[in-house]
UniProtKB/TrEMBL annotation, chain B:
Coiled coil regions, renumbered to chain: none
Membrane topology according to the record: Multi-pass membrane protein
GO BP annotation list: protein retention in ER lumen; protein transport; vesicle-mediated transport
Subcellular location: Endoplasmic reticulum membrane
The entry's keywords: Endoplasmic reticulum, ER-Golgi transport, Membrane, Protein transport, Receptor, Signal, Transmembrane, Transmembrane helix, Transport
Protein known as: ER lumen protein-retaining receptor
Transmembrane region(s): 55-78, 99-115, 121-140, 152-170, 182-203
Residues spanning the signal sequence: 1-31
One of the record's GO cellular component terms: endoplasmic reticulum membrane
Chief site of localization: endoplasmic reticulum
Family of this protein: Belongs to the ERD2 family.
Length: 10, 216
Protein backbone atom coordinates (compact mmCIF):
# COMPACT_ATOMS: atom_id res chain seq x y z
CA UNK A 1 0.00 0.00 0.00
CA UNK A 2 1.65 3.17 -1.22
CA UNK A 3 0.05 5.54 1.26
CA UNK A 4 1.20 3.47 4.22
CA UNK A 5 4.77 4.65 3.80
CA UNK A 6 4.16 7.61 6.09
CA UNK A 7 2.58 5.56 8.84
CA UNK A 8 5.96 4.43 10.13
CA UNK A 9 6.63 8.07 11.02
CA UNK A 10 5.61 9.65 14.29
CA UNK B 1 15.20 5.30 8.81
CA UNK B 2 17.34 8.21 7.69
CA UNK B 3 19.38 10.58 9.84
CA UNK B 4 16.98 13.53 9.34
CA UNK B 5 14.02 11.53 10.54
CA UNK B 6 15.96 10.28 13.57
CA UNK B 7 17.21 13.78 14.37
CA UNK B 8 13.64 15.06 14.00
CA UNK B 9 12.30 12.46 16.40
CA UNK B 10 15.10 13.20 18.86
CA UNK B 11 14.45 16.95 18.88
CA UNK B 12 10.76 16.19 19.31
CA UNK B 13 11.58 13.92 22.24
CA UNK B 14 13.91 16.54 23.71
CA UNK B 15 11.22 19.22 23.46
CA UNK B 16 8.87 17.07 25.54
CA UNK B 17 11.62 16.24 28.04
CA UNK B 18 12.56 19.92 28.42
CA UNK B 19 8.95 20.72 29.15
CA UNK B 20 8.57 17.88 31.66
CA UNK B 21 11.87 18.88 33.27
CA UNK B 22 10.66 22.44 33.71
CA UNK B 23 7.37 21.32 35.17
CA UNK B 24 8.78 18.56 37.35
CA UNK B 25 11.86 20.24 38.81
CA UNK B 26 10.89 23.92 38.91
CA UNK B 27 7.26 22.99 39.63
CA UNK B 28 6.18 25.70 37.23
CA UNK B 29 4.33 25.77 33.93
CA UNK B 30 4.52 29.55 33.54
CA UNK B 31 4.54 30.52 29.87
CA UNK B 32 3.22 27.13 28.74
CA UNK B 33 -0.10 27.07 26.93
CA UNK B 34 -2.50 24.46 28.27
CA UNK B 35 -4.51 24.91 25.07
CA UNK B 36 -1.58 23.80 22.93
CA UNK B 37 -0.88 20.88 25.27
CA UNK B 38 -4.51 19.75 25.04
CA UNK B 39 -4.32 19.90 21.26
CA UNK B 40 -1.12 17.83 21.20
CA UNK B 41 -2.67 15.18 23.45
CA UNK B 42 -5.58 15.02 21.01
CA UNK B 43 -3.18 14.88 18.05
CA UNK B 44 -1.33 11.89 19.50
CA UNK B 45 -4.52 10.11 20.59
CA UNK B 46 -6.00 10.45 17.09
CA UNK B 47 -2.81 9.56 15.23
CA UNK B 48 -1.71 6.55 17.26
CA UNK B 49 -4.97 4.59 17.05
CA UNK B 50 -2.94 1.85 15.36
CA UNK B 51 -0.58 1.45 18.29
CA UNK B 52 -2.01 -1.91 19.36
CA UNK B 53 -3.32 -3.06 15.99
CA UNK B 54 -0.31 -2.60 13.75
CA UNK B 55 3.30 -3.29 14.61
CA UNK B 56 5.99 -1.33 12.75
CA UNK B 57 9.02 -1.58 14.99
CA UNK B 58 9.94 -1.54 18.65
CA UNK B 59 11.26 2.00 18.15
CA UNK B 60 7.92 3.09 16.71
CA UNK B 61 5.84 1.57 19.51
CA UNK B 62 8.08 2.87 22.31
CA UNK B 63 8.14 6.40 20.88
CA UNK B 64 4.37 6.41 20.50
CA UNK B 65 3.97 5.34 24.11
CA UNK B 66 6.38 8.07 25.23
CA UNK B 67 4.56 10.79 23.29
CA UNK B 68 1.16 9.65 24.52
CA UNK B 69 2.34 9.22 28.11
CA UNK B 70 4.24 12.51 28.25
CA UNK B 71 1.49 14.61 26.68
CA UNK B 72 -1.14 13.29 29.08
CA UNK B 73 1.15 13.67 32.10
CA UNK B 74 1.81 17.30 31.13
CA UNK B 75 -1.96 17.81 31.05
CA UNK B 76 -2.25 16.16 34.46
CA UNK B 77 0.46 18.41 35.93
CA UNK B 78 -1.08 21.60 34.53
CA UNK B 79 -4.64 20.77 35.54
CA UNK B 80 -4.31 18.69 38.72
CA UNK B 81 -0.92 19.13 40.39
CA UNK B 82 -1.51 21.37 43.39
CA UNK B 83 1.68 23.42 42.98
CA UNK B 84 2.20 23.39 39.21
CA UNK B 85 -1.33 24.37 38.28
CA UNK B 86 -1.02 27.60 40.28
CA UNK B 87 1.73 28.85 37.94
CA UNK B 88 -0.46 28.46 34.86
CA UNK B 89 -1.06 31.79 33.05
CA UNK B 90 -4.77 31.21 32.72
CA UNK B 91 -5.71 34.82 32.00
CA UNK B 92 -3.14 35.11 29.21
CA UNK B 93 -3.81 31.73 27.61
CA UNK B 94 -7.11 32.70 26.03
CA UNK B 95 -6.82 31.28 22.52
CA UNK B 96 -10.10 29.56 21.66
CA UNK B 97 -8.53 26.30 20.66
CA UNK B 98 -11.82 24.44 20.28
CA UNK B 99 -12.41 26.45 17.15
CA UNK B 100 -9.36 24.79 15.61
CA UNK B 101 -10.60 21.25 16.24
CA UNK B 102 -13.84 21.31 14.27
CA UNK B 103 -12.45 22.78 11.02
CA UNK B 104 -9.60 20.25 11.12
CA UNK B 105 -12.10 17.41 11.55
CA UNK B 106 -14.28 18.68 8.69
CA UNK B 107 -11.21 19.12 6.48
CA UNK B 108 -10.07 15.57 7.31
CA UNK B 109 -13.51 14.24 6.35
CA UNK B 110 -13.34 16.10 3.04
CA UNK B 111 -9.68 15.79 2.11
CA UNK B 112 -8.03 12.47 2.90
CA UNK B 113 -6.25 9.67 1.09
CA UNK B 114 -8.75 6.99 2.09
CA UNK B 115 -12.21 7.34 3.63
CA UNK B 116 -11.87 4.99 6.58
CA UNK B 117 -12.17 5.80 10.28
CA UNK B 118 -8.47 5.29 11.02
CA UNK B 119 -7.31 7.21 7.95
CA UNK B 120 -9.64 10.16 8.63
CA UNK B 121 -8.49 10.31 12.26
CA UNK B 122 -4.88 10.14 11.11
CA UNK B 123 -5.45 12.97 8.62
CA UNK B 124 -7.28 14.96 11.30
CA UNK B 125 -4.21 14.62 13.54
CA UNK B 126 -1.98 15.91 10.72
CA UNK B 127 -4.17 19.00 10.21
CA UNK B 128 -4.53 19.64 13.92
CA UNK B 129 -0.81 19.30 14.58
CA UNK B 130 -0.15 21.95 11.93
CA UNK B 131 -2.02 24.57 13.96
CA UNK B 132 -1.67 23.20 17.52
CA UNK B 133 1.27 25.50 18.30
CA UNK B 134 -0.81 28.67 17.69
CA UNK B 135 -2.10 29.11 21.30
CA UNK B 136 1.49 28.70 22.53
CA UNK B 137 2.83 31.30 20.09
CA UNK B 138 0.07 33.73 21.06
CA UNK B 139 0.86 33.19 24.74
CA UNK B 140 4.58 33.83 24.12
CA UNK B 141 3.71 37.01 22.28
CA UNK B 142 1.63 38.17 25.23
CA UNK B 143 4.15 37.27 27.92
CA UNK B 144 6.94 38.74 25.75
CA UNK B 145 9.68 37.89 28.21
CA UNK B 146 10.26 34.23 27.60
CA UNK B 147 12.17 32.08 30.07
CA UNK B 148 14.95 29.85 28.75
CA UNK B 149 13.20 26.50 29.07
CA UNK B 150 10.01 27.68 27.36
CA UNK B 151 12.09 29.20 24.56
CA UNK B 152 14.03 25.96 24.16
CA UNK B 153 10.82 23.95 24.16
CA UNK B 154 9.35 25.92 21.25
CA UNK B 155 12.69 26.00 19.43
CA UNK B 156 13.04 22.19 19.65
CA UNK B 157 9.48 21.71 18.39
CA UNK B 158 10.22 23.95 15.41
CA UNK B 159 13.48 22.11 14.72
CA UNK B 160 11.61 18.81 14.76
CA UNK B 161 9.22 20.08 12.10
CA UNK B 162 12.02 21.44 9.94
CA UNK B 163 13.92 18.14 10.13
CA UNK B 164 10.81 16.20 9.14
CA UNK B 165 10.54 18.23 5.94
CA UNK B 166 14.16 17.44 5.07
CA UNK B 167 13.32 13.79 5.87
CA UNK B 168 10.44 13.84 3.36
CA UNK B 169 12.63 15.37 0.68
CA UNK B 170 15.26 12.73 1.37
CA UNK B 171 12.73 9.90 1.27
CA UNK B 172 11.23 11.23 -1.94
CA UNK B 173 14.57 10.86 -3.72
CA UNK B 174 16.01 7.89 -1.83
CA UNK B 175 13.04 5.51 -1.73
CA UNK B 176 11.71 4.31 -5.10
CA UNK B 177 8.34 3.21 -3.65
CA UNK B 178 7.79 6.44 -1.74
CA UNK B 179 4.79 8.27 -3.20
CA UNK B 180 3.79 11.93 -3.03
CA UNK B 181 1.97 12.90 0.14
CA UNK B 182 0.49 16.32 -0.53
CA UNK B 183 -1.66 16.37 2.61
CA UNK B 184 1.24 15.74 4.95
CA UNK B 185 3.70 17.90 3.05
CA UNK B 186 1.51 20.99 2.83
CA UNK B 187 0.41 20.65 6.47
CA UNK B 188 3.99 20.12 7.58
CA UNK B 189 5.22 23.09 5.59
CA UNK B 190 2.50 25.34 7.00
CA UNK B 191 3.32 24.16 10.51
CA UNK B 192 7.02 24.90 10.04
CA UNK B 193 6.28 28.35 8.59
CA UNK B 194 4.35 29.22 11.76
CA UNK B 195 7.64 28.97 13.65
CA UNK B 196 9.55 31.26 11.28
CA UNK B 197 8.91 34.45 13.22
CA UNK B 198 9.71 32.82 16.54
CA UNK B 199 12.91 31.33 15.11
CA UNK B 200 14.09 34.73 13.99
CA UNK B 201 13.84 36.20 17.48
CA UNK B 202 15.09 33.06 19.20
CA UNK B 203 18.28 32.84 17.12
CA UNK B 204 18.92 36.56 17.61
CA UNK B 205 18.58 36.21 21.36
CA UNK B 206 21.00 33.26 21.44
CA UNK B 207 23.47 35.10 19.19
CA UNK B 208 23.40 38.23 21.33
CA UNK B 209 23.24 36.19 24.52
CA UNK B 210 20.19 38.02 25.82
CA UNK B 211 16.87 36.87 27.16
CA UNK B 212 14.33 36.10 24.43
CA UNK B 213 11.90 38.97 24.03
CA UNK B 214 9.16 38.98 21.43
CA UNK B 215 7.79 42.20 19.96
CA UNK B 216 4.34 43.26 21.10
Amino acid sequence: DADDSLKDEL
Amino acid sequence: MNIFRLAGDMTHLMSVLVLLLKIHTIKSCAGISLKTQELYALVFAARYLDIFTHYYSLYNTVMKLIFLGSSFSILWYMKRHKVVRRSYDKDQDTFRHHFLVLPCLVLALLINEKFTFKEVMWTFSIYLEAVAILPQLVLLQRTRNVDNLTGQYVFLLGAYRGLYIINWIYRYFAEPTYSTHWITWISGLLQTLLYADFFYYYINSVKNNVRLQLPA
